[in-house]
């Protein structure tokens, strides 16, 4: 039976070091501030409505002020879908 040749193994070479990539916000830098602003405006609108017993922010809207506040909060959730 013939003997197989012995292959010489190459010396270990470590993989090249990964360079740190800079985090680019690009055009998405506006998302977090707008999202938080909409959440806070909606929350403040609803709290102001309850604290003033319906006199503020817009007395003419009556209980629809709650819908407006939740609309701002929903807008914040809508903007949050753009966050990466």
Q: Which short descriptors sum up this protein?
A:
rod-shaped; mainly alpha; 84 residues
Write the layout of secondary structure elements.
Blueprint: H1 31-51, H2 64-80
Helix pairs in contact: 1-2
What order do the SSEs take from the amino end to the carboxyl end, as H and E?
A: HH
| Mean pLDDT, all residues | 85
Q: How much of the polypeptide forms β-strand, as a percent range?
A: under 5%
Number of strands: 0
Helix content: 40-55%
Which structural class best describes the helix and strand composition? mainly alpha
Radius of gyration: 30 Å
The rounded distance between the terminal residues' Cα atoms is: 64 Å
Unreliable stretches = none
The major sheet is characterized as: none
Shape: rod-shaped
Q: Total helix count? A: 2
Structural commentary:
The protein has 84 residues and is mostly helical. The protein is 45% helix and 0% strand. The chain has two helices and no strands. The protein has helices at residues 31-51, 64-80. The longest helix has 21 residues, at 31-51.
Question: What is the gist of this entry?
Answer:
With 84 residues, this protein is mainly alpha-helical.
């Amino acid at each position: 039976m013939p003997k197989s040749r012995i292959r010489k193994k190459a010396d270990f070479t470590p993989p090249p070091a990964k360079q740190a990539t800079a985090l680019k916000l690009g055009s998405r830098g506006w998302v977090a501030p707008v999202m938080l602003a909409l959440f806070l405006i909606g929350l403040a609108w609803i709290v102001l409505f309850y604290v003033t017993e319906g006199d503020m922010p817009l007395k003419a809207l009556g209980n629809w002020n709650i819908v407006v506040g939740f609309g701002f909060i929903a807008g914040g959730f809508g903007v949050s879908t753009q966050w990466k």
